[in-house]
Write a structure and sequence with these properties.
Layout (H helix, E strand, L loop, with lengths): L1 H14 L9 E8 L7 H13 L4 E6 L2 H9 L4 E3 L3 H9 E6 L15 E4 L19 H6 L2 H6 L9 E4 L2 H11 L6 E3 L6 H4 L2 H11 L2 H10 L4 E5 L10 H4 L3 H11 L1 E5 L18 E3 L15 E4 L4 H5 L6 E5 L3 H7 L13 E3 L2 H10 L6 H12 L6 H9 L1
Parallel strand pairs: 1-2, 1-4, 2-3, 4-5, 5-6, 6-7, 8-9, 8-11, 9-10, 11-12, 12-13
C-alpha cells in the first residue's frame, strides 16, 4: 500500500508541469470539494452560478460516483475527475473554485488555472501556516520533504482567497502566504440557506437536497426543541462524542423534555459507529448530509471553537451553548488567532454536568447586542450576495 501511494504521488508530481501547457477557457469554471463531496461554499456557488449565469460552462468534478449521480439527477453538470471529460475539463478551465485545496479537484491538473480558495470557515483558531505547534507542525512549520511530497496542494498558493472582513483577510493572507489584496471580502455562499426566506429555502431543499435531509427536517418538526452539536476538529482526532459526553444520560434528559439532539461530526473526526444507533432522541448525521439547509430548523447550536458559530448567529432567535471542556488543552494544541471570550456569544460551559444543566434549565440565550456586534465584525453586511460579487469579479 505504501509503495502504491508513493508511485501515485510520483505520477502526480510528474504530470503537474504539463498542466501549464493547456489553453484555458475563461467561461469554463471547475468546482470541487474535499473527499469528493457536494457541500460547503463550492456547492452553493456552483448552483447559483448555474442558475444565474447560463452562459458559463460550469461543472462539478469529483471522484465519488454517488456525488456525480446525485448532481446529474438535479440537471447539473458533473464529471468523474479521472474520466476523459473530467480530465479535459480540469485542464482547460480557467477558474477553479474549491473548499480547501486544489486536491478537491486534482492538484496535478491545476497548473495555470486561476485557483480561488473558498475555504470552509472563518478563523477563530490558527490555520495553515499560522500553526506553530501540534501534530501539523511538520507540515506548516518544519515543512519536511515527506510533507511536501505527499501534500503538494498545501504548498500551492491560491490565487485568490474568499474572505468576509478586513481582519479575516489579514489572517488569511498570513496563513496562506498571499498578498492581502488577493483576499476577496465577499462573504460565504454557503450562508444562502441561513439568510433566505422560508419559501426560497423550501424550494431550494426540494430542488437540490437529498431525501435524507428532508427526512431530518420532518423529524425535527416532531419535537418541542432541537439542538445540534457541531464540534470542531481536533488535530488528535479524538472520538469526542464518547469521550466528552455520557450519551445515555443526555438521551434520557432529552426524552424527558421531548427534545432532539443532532450530532454532526467534523469531516475529519473519528467516531464509534456502534454508538450511533442506540438512542431515541439523539441522531448522528452522516458526513454525506449538508447541514446548512437543516440549520434554519434547529433551535440551539452547541459548539466549541468552530466558526459555525458565526454562521448560525446570522439567524435570529437561535440559542448557543459553547461546550469548551478542553479549552486549555486545545489552546496548547492549536491556539487561537483571536481572543476567544471577546469573539464568542452564548452560554459557556466547561464540563458535561454544566451542559446538562444548561439544557435542563434552558439557559442558552445570547446577548443580542453582542450578537449584532459580532455579525458586523465578521460579516460586515448580513444581506450581502457573495455569488453576485464573485460573478462580477471573474466574468
Amino acid at each position: 500500500m505504501k509503495l502504491f501511494k508513493f508511485l501515485a504521488f510520483c505520477i502526480i508530481h510528474c504530470l503537474y508541469p504539463f498542466s501549464f501547457l493547456f489553453p484555458r477557457d475563461r467561461k469554463k469554471w471547475a468546482f470541487g470539494s474535499f473527499r469528493g463531496a457536494f457541500n460547503d461554499n463550492a456547492k452553493y456557488l456552483f448552483i447559483q452560478c448555474c442558475e444565474e449565469s447560463p452562459e458559463l460552462n460550469c461543472a462539478w468534478l469529483s471522484m465519488n460516483n454517488d456525488t456525480i449521480r446525485f448532481i446529474r439527477s438535479r440537471n447539473l453538470r458533473a464529471y468523474h475527475t479521472l474520466s476523459p471529460r473530467g480530465i479535459w475539463f480540469a485542464l482547460t478551465s480557467k477558474y477553479w473554485f474549491f473548499n480547501a485545496y486544489t486536491s478537491d479537484i486534482l492538484y496535478c491538473f491545476s497548473g495555470n488555472a486561476v485557483c480561488v480558495n473558498l475555504w470552509h470557515g472563518l478563523t477563530m483558531k490558527r490555520i495553515e501556516f499560522g500553526i506553530k505547534s501540534g501534530p501539523l507542525a511538520d507540515r506548516f512549520v518544519k515543512q519536511t520533504w515527506k510533507e511536501r511530497f505527499y501534500n503538494p496542494e498545501t504548498y500551492r498558493k491560491p490565487d485568490y482567497m474568499l474572505s468576509s472582513a478586513p481582519f479575516q483577510s489579514d489572517i488569511f493572507a498570513r496563513s496562506f502566504r498571499i498578498p492581502i489584496d488577493k483576499c476577496l471580502e465577499f462573504g460565504y455562499p454557503r450562508n444562502f440557506p441561513l439568510t433566505s426566506d422560508s419559501e426560497t429555502l423550501r424550494n431550494f431543499i426540494t430542488k437540490y437536497e437529498t431525501q435524507e435531509t428532508e427526512s431530518l427536517i420532518e423529524k425535527i418538526a416532531q419535537y418541542k426543541r432541537t439542538f445540534i452539536y457541531m464540534p470542531t476538529w481536533r488535530d488528535s482526532q479524538k472520538n469526542i462524542f464518547s469521550q466528552s459526553m455520557n450519551l445515555h444520560e443526555l438521551d434520557s434528559l432529552l426524552q424527558s423534555k421531548n427534545e432532539l439532539m443532532l450530532m454532526k461530526p467534523h469531516a475529519n473526526t473519528v467516531i464509534d459507529d456502534s454508538q450511533c444507533q442506540q438512542f431515541s432522541n439523539i441522531v448522528f448525521i452522516s458526513n454525506t448530509v449538508d447541514v446548512y439547509p437543516i440549520l434554519p430548523f434547529i433551535d440551539v447550536l452547541i459548539t466549541d471553537y468552530s466558526s459555525i458559530l458565526y454562521d448560525v448567529i446570522l439567524m435570529d432567535n437561535k440559542g448557543v451553548i459553547l461546550y469548551v471542556y478542553d479549552y486549555n488543552e486545545y489552546e496548547t494544541e492549536r491556539s487561537f488567532e483571536i481572543p476567544f471570550d471577546e469573539n464568542t456569544v452564548g452560554k459557556k460551559v466547561t464540563n458535561f454536568e454544566g451542559l446538562l444543566q444548561a439544557i435542563s434549565e434552558e439557559d442558552y440565550h445570547v446577548d443580542e447586542q453582542k450578537r449584532q456586534a459580532l455579525i458586523k465584525k465578521f460579516w460586515g453586511q448580513k444581506d450581502s450576495n457573495p455569488t453576485k460579487k464573485i460573478l462580477e469579479k471573474f466574468l
